[in-house]
Structures are given as structure tokens and as C-alpha cells.
Amino acid sequence: MINDKNSQKIADFIKNWARKHSIWVLAYGTGCGAIEIPPTMTSRYDAERLGVRGAATPRQADVLLITGYLTTKTLKRVIRVYEQMQDPKYVIGFGSCTINGGMYYDSYNTIKVLDKYLPVDVYINGCMPRPEAVLAGFAKLQQLIQEGKATGAQKYKENHEYYRGNLRKIIGNKYEMPLYNW
Amino acid sequence: MENIKADLISKIKSTFENVTEKDHDGNRLDFYVNKKIIPSILTHFKVNEGFIHLSHISCVDWLEEGEFEIIYILWSPKDKIKVFVRTRVERENPVMPNIDMIWRQANTYEREMREMFGIEFEGLVGEKEFVLEDWEGMPPMRRDFDTEAYADETFWHRPGREDAMDVREAIIERSREEIPDFAKKYSR
């Protein structure tokens, strides 16, 4: 019965519908964009009506927000946090710094292209994106989840060597990163 | 305020040799000194003149003159005056006297300067690594460190930035705005 095509379709629909209405965001901010999260969460824009709320630890969270510029020092911790998160998990790149470096395009210690290191599902542009833009990003992520297209975690599993290789090129061989198995 | 400043200048000049001063508006006073007398003049300011607060230690890279300028900013809560003690040190193998026995918080600034400019302080305690991790090569805040070239060879860039055009002339033409001469040299 469970291998029946139509049953699988219905099961997927229910699963995706449930997932899209409980997006828990890891309370972890990098860079200056984290200051846009409190107005998004609090009463004026009230992201919780979409099911978006904070989660305390990586293992309880579904979404990792990269809010702004990411230094090489923070990148190591971000990768570690991302690998600790449980499937299903999604990444939102926030602000122009994650897209092409933004105003830090010539900085010696910030990365320029986030999707070399993490599989990004949604990018929100702007410097900084206002809470309306953040909500639009979450709505886009919900749409992708419902359609079953937010498959960043799957991509990360399949191309683990590629992402780890890029990370290794940046941080060198001195820093030891633990390997989490799936 | 002027009386206090003049008094301070005469006291410092009678105590130390080769000190030049520069008076600024408001409550600011600069002293240019040799680096050898830095610990003694700072101790004098702290103990005898009431400048008990070290606000900041700052560093300027004078690349063309081959020197670093180190600036100690002191504050006197009693007289409400801030004093800038400025000294120069050569850029090749710079070594400065350590002052963290006078103010303990100077240790933090000195460690940062050691990492960002490569200035050594005699007998400085603390980890070599301060903010940067696994950094090798030239200290990044020196002016001859080419940060754009370093970023180009270390990181990936997303294509699309190379056709960023200078649109200022088009804007000036459209708005018939006059641009001052000094601003023209910053044009790309």
C-alpha cells in the first residue's frame, strides 16, 4: 500500500505541508543582519503566524540563517553547526554579503560566495533586507518546501567532498574539523 | 582650561627633554615624544598629573616615511583634559617599550597591535594569536598589504562585478550638477 504511487503522493503532500508550517530558525546570528530578526519575530511583523520561531540548539532547528558577512573564523563554526542540524534542514542567505561579498568584496577575512560552502535554498538580497523582505524569503522557502524543491541537505550529502574541499582550501590544514556521520 | 593647559605644558617641558607640544581647540593637548621615555612620561602623567585613565592606544602606518606612529590617549577626570602622547617607531623590526605594568588594559591593545601591525613589545605576556586564526604572512593592517589581491587569490568571486561602471559622470551630465575639483581625482 505504501509503495502505491498515489499514496506516496498524498503522504508527501502531508509531510511537506507539516514541514512548511513549522520552520524553526536557529538563534544564531553572524554579521549585522541579525538585528533584523527581532523586529521580524516580534509583534509588528509577527513571523510566528507563519510558523517561524526560534530554536535554541542546532538539533532542534530547521533553518540556518546566515545573516550577513561571514568571516573565515565564523565559517568553521557555521559548518559545524550546519552538520549538527537534523534533516530536514534549510539554509537562507541573508543580504548581499552572502551573495557576492557586498561591501566586503575586497576584505581579507570574509568569504564572498556562500554557496561554495553551504547549499543555499533561498537568497534574500538587500543591504540590509527589511523585515518585509525577510518574510518574503520565508514565504518563498515555504513554497519550495511544499513543492519538494528545497533539497539543499540532500545536495550537501551527495556533494560532501566538494563542500569540504572548498572549506579546506580557505581554512588550511591546521584547523581540525570533526566529521559528523549522517 | 587655558591656564591648566599652559601649566601642564610648562611642567612637562621642565621635567622631560625633547618634548614638543601642539595645542588643539577644546580640551585636547598633543605631546610629541621619543619612544625611549614613553614609560616614564606615562607614569608621570598617571601619578603626578592625575591622568589616571588610558582611553586608547592607536597606531598609524606612515608608509611613505617608513614609520609607525603610536598614540596613547589619556584622560584626566579631575581637569577634564585629554592628552595625546605621540611617538614614532621605525617600520623595519619595530620594537616598543611595554606599558602594561602602568595600565593593565594596555595589554589588550598591545596584543592587537602586535597581530595587526607586527609591532613587538618588550616582555609582552599573552597568546600570540589574538583575533585572527592561523594567520601567516604580512600583518593585515599594514598599508602595503594588498587586501584586494589577497582576496582575489584566496576566495572565490561571483562573476558580474567586473562590469561595475562608474556612473557618476552620467549622473552629473543628466543633473547638470557641478563637481568640485578635489572630488574628480577619486573617480575610477
What does this molecule look like?
The complex is a heterodimer of chains A (182) and B (188). Chain A contains 7 helices and 5 strands; from the N terminus they run αβαββαβαβααα. Chain A is of the alpha/beta class and 182 residues long. In chain A, helix 1 (5-20) runs antiparallel to helix 5 (131-147). Chain B contains 6 helices and 7 strands, in the order H-E-E-H-E-E-E-E-H-E-H-H-H. Chain B has helices spanning 2-15, 38-48, 106-117, 147-154, 168-175, 181-184; strands at residues 20-23, 28-32, 53-62, 67-76, 81-90, 95-96, 120-121. With 188 residues, chain B is an alpha/beta fold. The chains are: A alpha/beta (182), B alpha/beta (188). The A-B interface holds A 72-73, 99-101, 105-109, 111-113, 116, 166, 170-172, 174-175 and B 132-134, 140, 145, 147-148, 150-151, 154-158, 160-161.
Observed structural traits:
A: 182 residues, alpha/beta, Rossmann fold, two-stranded parallel ribbon, 5 strands, B: 188 residues, Beta Polymerase, domain 2, two-stranded parallel sheet, 7 strands, 23% strand
Short overview:
The complex is a heterodimer of chains A (182) and B (188). With 182 residues, chain A is α/β, with parallel strands linked by helices. In chain A, 41% of the residues lie in helices and 10% in strands.
